[in-house]
Amino acid sequence: MWYKGKRLLLTTLAAGLLYTTTAFAANVQMDLFYNGAHHAYNAKEIAIVIDGEKYTDPNMPAVSIDGRTMLPMRGICEELGCTVTWNEAAKQVYAVSDTHTVVFQIDSKTGYKNGETFTMDVAPMIVNDRTMLPVRALATALDIDVTWDDPNRTVYIGEAPSTGGSTGSNTGTNTGGNTGTNTGGSTGSNTGTSTATTGKVSKVTVPASKTAAQNFVITTTGTFNRCEEVYVSDNKVVLDFYGATNGLSTNISATNSPFVTAIRTAQHTADNGETYTRVVFDLTGKMEYKVTPNAAKNQVTLAFEQVEIKSITSSHSGNTETVTINASGATGATVTTMQDPYRTVIDMPGVKADGIDEIINTDGLEYVSEVRTGWMNGTTFRVVVEASDLTQMTWKEENGKLIVTIQKSTLENLSYNDSANTLTLKKVKNINTGSIKHKDAYLDGYYELTLPGDYSDVYGYGTLNVNTSQIKSFTISTTGGNTVIRFNQNIISAYTIKDTGSAYEITAKNPQQVYDKVLLLDAGHGGNDPGTSGNGLTEKTMNLTMALKVKSYVENNSNIKVYLTRDDDSRPANADRAKAANQIADLMVSIHMNAGAASASGTETLYAAHSNDGNGTLTSLQAAQAVQSRLPGALSTTNRGVKSRPDLLILNSTTVPAILIETCFLSNPGDALKISQATYQDAAAKAIGDGIVYAMNKYKLR
Question: What is the pTM of this model?
Fold first, then answer.
């Protein structure tokens, strides 16, 4: 049994060696769903041979995600006679043999081998409903030897051919992918396993101008071992220079390109300890290009092809109309939907569009009112498709065709003003606006209004994309005999309803336009970031418990409108938490728990001074003092005072008053015992709430 368990782990490591560029392997093209979003995937295939027979997983291949190879466990495990066990409740996966038990926690970099912890640089994750494990994680769990045949992109497990391969632990580890738009560029032979650093990425030469040939040259002083391309998304080209340190001190924004928006660099260490420098080209969209290294291995040219717009055509069939832009390749287009008038704007930088008319023939079209073209800044070709308000426009680009689809909506008797973010419903039937039910699901990205009755015969049903700074789209549907209007939001919004006599105006507004006082409560950490822990308590859980109690107390004892950054075990990015505060709040309060030596205890509140302090409105320091003057007494903890912490992102990225409360020390048995009890939690929530209410009532907010 141990042999089969070892074979499973050998297979897993082997997948990490396969992502080099070669002409011999087929491409794997598929849609990957992870982290709540879909990702187009196109990379070279990995071949695995077990005891002389090729193995193909029937459900999920190995994939490279952001430069890291991830491998599905179950299929290979069953092939080798080993066992993988999934614990849904704990989100853990087990690899078990007679002598080893390896445990991985989804979204956690800490694993367990026979009860001992080890740390991974990439956490296991769920992709397409499959548990995917990082290659290096299993290599860390057990010592593994593999045989890798680079020219044929094949890894041999067990019996291997006598020639053509190189054997060794972690030999040639490589997690680079290759985009499907790369039409012939080699990215290095990758036949060696050297980890020596021989060069330095020293220069990126950009084109002479936006109208010049779009060739970028990356130069190293000394040589690089190999250059690999990593597929991340269609709007990026990512090149990794192995054996080269990063000699570029700043990122490049002056690219002299209409479609390369920035060039970024960073130095990393590969799984096998090899140093490499990553160079990232940010694009406006998918482009055709070629990557060519020179023979001396000190220069790589990234050449973008100039795509030609050959024609623009239109057609009508049934309830659908299409406008098709026919091109010689991917256009790098950015596509935006706008209102007043309703239109889709397609910008294609750096293309050639000789002979394309300024006004495109739309004879026979019913929904499209006009298709026009023109040049923006002399380098970007723009196509505008204008249609009637009550249509739905979508687009896709594939095989040299960018297709805009226009479909007639069943929606009627309404209009949307994107400058005012107002949906106007004609008063065909009376609506009792006082009976409209509101559901603010801002953490799920939407706000719903349920009308008292079925108005589908008046307003129809369907979705319209509006794409304003506040609203992505709105959908009208009927459920349980009541018409529901759902606004899909870009930012948290509040809604007002006005009866004008001839219509009902529903307007999305910034909460500060609707409420006198707005508080954003933040439960720190969450999701795969548990924060600290101690004495049986986990910080992310305690933070959420306290945030929910503070929210309830403030809402029941003041006129303050309260929003949360999370109400479950999720993990918003800290930058997004600060951004939300800046957008909607008068005060942000982030709740945390502290950690230190077992003897450390007490409560402290952190703040950072802002440049707009002193204008007569509430400051972060004043808010911190209001909370700190109450909380230690309520918890009977040591008063550690108010402290300036301008190094914390939550505090230094906010422009509104913001404080971070370190409620107590989970590492201290006495503090932990108190905060674990509901009576102390309630007392702490009241103290925090009273401090917030005092500060927001005493000081001017706007």
Answer: 0.57
